[in-house]
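Good morning C.,

I know you're traveling, so I'll keep this short. The sequence:
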Amino acid sequence: MARILVVEDEANIALALEDDLKKEGYDVEIVGDGDRACGRALEAAFDLILLDVMLPHKDGFDVCRDLRRARVRTPILMLTAKTQEAEKILGLELGADDYVTKPYSPRELRARIKALLRRAADELPEVFRFGDVEVDFARYEVRRGGRLLEVTPTEFKLLAAFIRRRGRVLTRDQLLDLAWGQGVFVTDRVVDNQIANLRKKIEPKPSKPRYLLNVRGVGYRFDG
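The tokens, ready to paste straight into the viewer:
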């Protein structure tokens, strides 16, 4: 039974979510403010966090940022009434895995929860090594030659996607879905820039990549 932490300050919405998710077989816990959300996510193990953006004490963006800084890797699905594309992208850049805009369809929300839980269940080694690079999925860290690298949440998601599918070509559209989530508009140039930044951190010679290879006219492939 998957455990879901629902962070929602509006009681009627929280109760409706709790009822719906329990009918789906999930173990649900409700908290109503950002400070408590951070505390519970650090104290207990959850399989997914359903996080509203507008919260008392600390908003959902700050909660997401603080949890990722604390190396909490639990999938985060943000609930937002905000429709501006930039704010959706901000949540994803801070480490959220997906978002649903209010008013939402309960059916869509259930589908997105199931998709995130399936994605999180994909087997990955606790630590993956290639060359002098070490990717620690348990600690949400990347090291090179024993030195901790400054890696953004999006860069980490990209690297995890490549490692999961090493040896396979991934199109830019696939990388968008895997690192930014479905329904987010990000240009191919943004993807290419993120790849370039990642190469600078993990490649011996970024101008002549050994691991993150460009497949002309298709996308990228990770050979590690």
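Safe travels,
E.
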